[in-house]
Specification:
alpha/beta; Chloramphenicol Acetyltransferase; Rossmann fold; GMP Synthetase, Chain A, domain 3; elongated
């Protein structure tokens, strides 16, 4: 695809002046801006951009047509702290150094570096920048004709993204060409606008930090900061959790509040019991803001305990009785509770800590015989406010030590009261199956009890028995259910009947599987609202939700939606700047759900809970989540994984989520997780864990082959482990620590054939030692078995020691099978360089380095050949001398051997074959005059578009030629269109200028009956190719 771009004369002049102040050219200034934009879009501060250079250092090459152009790889590091001025100095130094070596063929650079290869993208760089200032051989004109160049619209992108500009009328015009299978047109249109804003920022202040350069227009900034965060909703922000519960108990005292397997409590009964417990705790000395731990199974007693703690003015600290003793000890010592409520059966679970215990079962809460008051504790007397902590919930810490999150009353109320994503009413029944120490329980318990609904407690035994769970949900009349993504995927079939009865099915805690979602959506009877929920514990359960109505056939992920009521979400780059739509940023969450902070961790609190610079509220804060996401154009957010899922492996920065996404697209794969494991000390490898769709047997070899179509070699896992199901934590999330180490059969080995001969046997022993494998066959592939570039370096060293031969690193990449590398060991040799000479046309004529690359690509995938076509079009108005035009084109083909060259195999090598000079130019004519003004099924304009498309995209046969062709389309007596297409293997941008110049010169002469005025050519392209190949 292609998107037009234009920079005004004023901006272009500003860019030119900016460069002049720093001794930089206009191209260098554009390169600084382009690299900055790419850095901001990708989140990388190390960017490699390709740019073409004419590569015609000798004057005798300037008049030749041929594929001379070389490509420079420019490595720019636009670190955010650099000023624009400092970046310009860096770019200038990089450009000057690159130009000093511009004669070195790009293909030799690739051979020397040996980057991972893929048919999916160009090696070393995937982004180009070109400022077209190649000479066209002077002013181009034809006598008695006015000329209008036509924009080529039928092209195929060679790179992921290319910015091409040309100076015109004082400004710059051009286009962004993009790979349409990677980018949507709307994304590139936005990118063009962001580039313009950024360049304007550079011109305005060259001392500004690159990270602070603007990307968003005022309207775009308002959209991502304000419009997407228009979430204000009325809720009782000044009230307390138990205060709202007491209102429900007063309104409907006889309505069922909570039910478990042992019995039930009405709202009135629950309120009375909780009051008695609260007065009991107050009698123990519980003060407002004190913390009280609670260790109980999901049950009536547990709900009473939570309410009692809140009514006493305390904050509850839920403890999972299934936690290891040491973890419970840490939580008790860290939270310093005044007391711990515990069920009698669980007393032995608690470690010996100096905290008074209250055995829930032993306190008489069901009757007044214990002398405890049953009235609501006085809020005013206790001095409670909605900004006091309601609970402390512990989450896993990166250091391995859990951290306690302090959540206030108002944050819970914002979650469950009048929030549009799920409106629970007195008619609902909410299931409570989440661990109380897991923040999903916050939504389950309080969405029910604060809205007058019934809470159905689901025991752990029932939760882990899907058939029993299905029965309990149906019999209990459950209308609202929350499940972890892991349990949802596991139970999607067996809970079909229960799902059909639900008003709300909320899923979260991990990435949602589109295959499982599609199953639910395909059913005639399904939940009325299927919701994907996202939110860290630090923002009170949910920060955003997405209601799923339908999935496209190619859905790879499900959005996490928009921020819920009274919540703001910002996607920011590493420097705290809002990112554009479609660009990855770290998710920052503001609003009423943000926790007070971490208990006893002031430094971590200051690091993760930041001032909210985008909110108008005084002292507003936001939580830095460590999650990555991107805005979609409709204001929803797509989750992209964790910041710490971005790993660095052998020098490459890798997004594990990207690999997981590609794996999920492979046929037969249901779920995919990728980890980095240390195979041997210092040898880290990617390992993929998979579950298969029913009846499918996954093959490591096939998976590797499928991934190689879309991922770089270094991103392809070394091993593929298929599991019946993923291990889950007690909270229902994926347990990454429980994933097993891969066995030998997890690697992509090929059909085994024993090594043959002494060299292959010795080589196999080296491979086995390096790769940690028991057996290697002669057809096995070094990199498919887990090898990588660093191991390849060790391999070369061991080959040198073992065989006393010089084997280059590139030989390992060229022949990665055991059999092939053994052959290379035997044939190791050096190459030498010879001086430039004219080549004997009777000898086999070699290809240049650049031609060799294009020829090889054509052999691999001829369908992609249109990416290397150079189409051009001219609208000719006036009286055209068609004979003179044909003679002109014939003469040009006769004059340039490369235009009558095709390619053949000779002794296994590609060579150039030059046709006789009499070959001529095949010019096909089309007469569209009958379509002029007539009511036809096709207009002239449509016919021209069709013919231009056919001309530009029709494949060339490199083995037959010709590799230049054209069409002359007649629209009227005084208007024609000339279409000419060349294959890049015989031409380049400079050559097009030479071609146009020679058309002008020869047509002018021939139309006047004059002889060819052009000087004879001293060299031909094949002479250059032979000389270059001897370097």
């Amino acid at each position: 695809g292609r998107v037009s771009l234009a920079l005004s004369p004023a901006l272009t002049a500003g860019l030119r002046q900016l460069g002049q102040r720093h001794g930089a050219t206009l191209f260098m200034t554009l390169l600084a801006g382009w690299s900055s934009l790419l850095s901001r879009f990708s989140g990388q501060d190390d960017v490699v951009i390709g740019t073409p250079v004419a590569n015609r250092p000798r004057s005798e090459l300037e008049s030749l047509i041929g594929f001379f152009v070389n490509t420079l790889a420019l490595r720019i590091r636009p670190q955010g702290g650099l000023s624009v001025a400092a970046l310009l100095e860096q770019v200038k130094a990089v450009m000057l150094a690159a130009h000093a070596h511009q004669d070195l063929p790009f293909e030799q650079v690739v051979e020397a570096l040996q980057p991972p290869r893929s048919l999916g993208h160009s090696p070393i760089f995937q982004v180009m920048l070109a400022l077209n200032n190649t000479p066209g051989g002077g002013e181009f004109s034809l006598p008695e004709l006015s000329l209008e160049p036509l924009q080529a619209s039928h092209t195929t992108a060679q790179f992921d993204l290319s910015l091409a500009l040309v100076e015109a009328d004082g400004g710059l015009v051009g286009s962004l060409e993009y790979a349409s299978d990677l980018f949507e047109r709307a994304t590139i249109e936005r990118m063009a606008g962001h580039l313009q804003v950024l360049l304007e920022g550079m011109v305005a202040d060259d001392q500004q930090a690159v990270a602070e350069l603007p990307l968003l227009s005022c309207e775009q900034r308002r959209q991502v900061l304000e419009s997407f965060n228009d979430t204000a909703a009325a809720y009782p922000a000044d009230k307390l959790i138990h205060q709202l519960f007491e209102e429900q108990a007063a309104q409907q005292p006889d309505a069922l509040a909570v039910v478990d397997e042992t019995g039930s409590l009405s709202y009135g009964e629950l309120n009375t019991r909780a009051n008695r417990l609260a007065h009991y705790l107050i009698g123990l000395g519980i003060q407002p803001d004190d913390r009280v731990a609670i260790c109980a199974q999901r049950s009536l007693e547990m709900v009473v305990g939570l309410l009692g703690i809140l009514k006493a003015g305390g904050a509850y600290v839920p403890l999972d009785p299934g936690y290891p003793s040491e973890r419970l000890r840490y939580m008790l010592e860290d939270s310093t509770p005044v007391a711990v409520l515990v069920q009698a059966a669980l007393q032995e679970c608690l470690p010996a800590v100096n905290v008074q215990q209250v055995v829930l079962d032993s306190v008489d809460l069901s009757s007044g015989t214990g002398g405890l008051p049953c009235g609501n504790p006085d809020l005013d007397a206790l001095g409670l406010t909605s900004r006091m902590p309601a609970y402390v919930m512990y989450t896993s810490g990166s250091s391995g030590v859990p951290k306690g999150v302090l959540i206030e009353h108002r944050s819970v109320l914002r979650l469950v009261i009048n929030n549009p994503y799920a409106r629970i009413t007195t008619e609902d029944c909410v299931a409570h199956g989440a661990n109380t120490a897991f923040d999903a329980s916050t939504w389950e318990i309080w969405s029910a009890l604060l809205n007058g609904a019934k809470l159905l407690v689901v025991s752990q035994a029932t939760l882990l028995n899907p058939a029993r769970l299905n029965h309990v949900l149906i019999e209990g009349g459950v209308t609202a259910l929350w499940l972890t993504a892991g349990l949802f995927n596991e139970y999607v079939d067996v809970l079909a009947a229960a799902f059909s009865k639900l008003r709300y099915l909320l899923v979260g805690g991990d990435v949602l599987d589109p295959v499982s979602v599609a199953k639910v959506l395909s059913r005639a009877h399904r939940p009325r609202h299927l919701i994907n929920g996202y939110g860290p514990t630090e923002t009170t359960t949910f920060a955003s939700t997405y209601e799923i109505h339908a999935l496209s056939d190619n859905s790879r992920s499900i959005p996490i939606g928009r921020p819920i009521g009274n919540t703001r979400i910002y996607l920011l780059d590493a420097h705290g700047q809002p990112v554009p739509i479609g660009v990855s940023g770290e998710i920052h969450i503001g609003g009423a759900g943000v926790a007070r902070g971490y208990l006893n961790l002031p430094e971590l609190t200051a690091e993760r809970f930041l001032e909210d610079p985008f909110s108008a509220e005084p002292a507003a804060r936001m939580y830095r989540s460590g999650d990555l996401g991107r805005w979609l154009a409709d204001g929803n957010i797509e989750y992209l994984g964790r910041n710490d899922d971005q790993v660095k492996l052998r020098g490459f920065r890798i997004e594990l989520g990207e690999i997981e996404s590609k794996l999920s697209e492979c046929p037969g794969v249901r779920e995919a997780v990728v980890l980095v494991r240390e195979h041997l000390p210092g040898d880290k490898r990617l390992v993929a864990y998979l579950t298969a769709q029913e009846g499918v047997e996954l093959s490591a070899t096939q998976l590797r082959e499928q991934l190689s179509q879309g991922l770089a070699e270094y991103m392809i896992p070394s091993a593929f482990v298929t599991l019946a199901r993923f291990p889950l934590t007690p909270n229902g999330k994926l347990d990454r620590r429980a994933l097993p180490a891969p066995e030998d059969d997890a690697y992509a080995s090929r059909d085994y054939e024993a090594p043959a001969g002494e060299v292959e046997h010795a080589l196999a022993q080296i491979w086995q030692a390096l790769l940690g494998l028991e057996r290697v066959g002669r057809h096995d592939h070094f990199f498919e078995l887990g090898g990588h570039s660093l191991l390849a370096v060790q391999l070369v060293s061991r080959l040198r020691q073992r065989f006393e031969v010089e084997v280059a690193l590139r030989d390992v990449f060229a022949e990665p099978t055991l059999q092939g590398l053994a052959r290379q060991v035997a044939n190791a040799r050096l190459s030498a360089q010879t001086p430039l000479t004219l080549v004997d046309r009777d000898l086999p004529l070699p290809l240049s380095w650049a031609q060799q690359r294009l020829w090889f690509l054509d052999q691999l995938d001829r369908a992609a050949g249109a990416a290397y076509h150079i189409p051009a079009g001219l609208r000719l108005r006036g009286r055209l001398d068609r004979d003179a035009l044909q003679a002109t084109l014939d003469r040009i083909v006769a004059r340039h051997e490369t235009l009558r060259t095709h390619f053949a195999l000779h002794e296994g090598q590609a060579i150039q074959v030059i046709a006789p000079a009499t070959q001529g130019f095949a010019l096909v004519t089309h007469d569209l005059r009958p379509l002029d003004g007539a009511a036809q099924h096709e207009t002239q304009h449509e016919a021209v578009e069709r013919l231009a498309g056919e001309e530009a995209l029709a494949p060339f046969d490199l083995s037959r030629g010709p590799l230049i062709r054209g069409r002359l389309v007649q629209l009227s007596e005084m208007e024609h269109i000339l279409l000419v297409t060349q294959h890049h293997i015989v031409s380049d941008g400079w050559s097009t200028g030479v071609l146009l110049h020679e058309i002008g010169t020869l047509y002018r002469a021939f139309s006047q009956g004059l002889a060819d005025p052009l000087p004879a050519l001293a060299f031909q392209y094949v002479d250059y190719a032979a000389w270059q190949r001897q370097w």
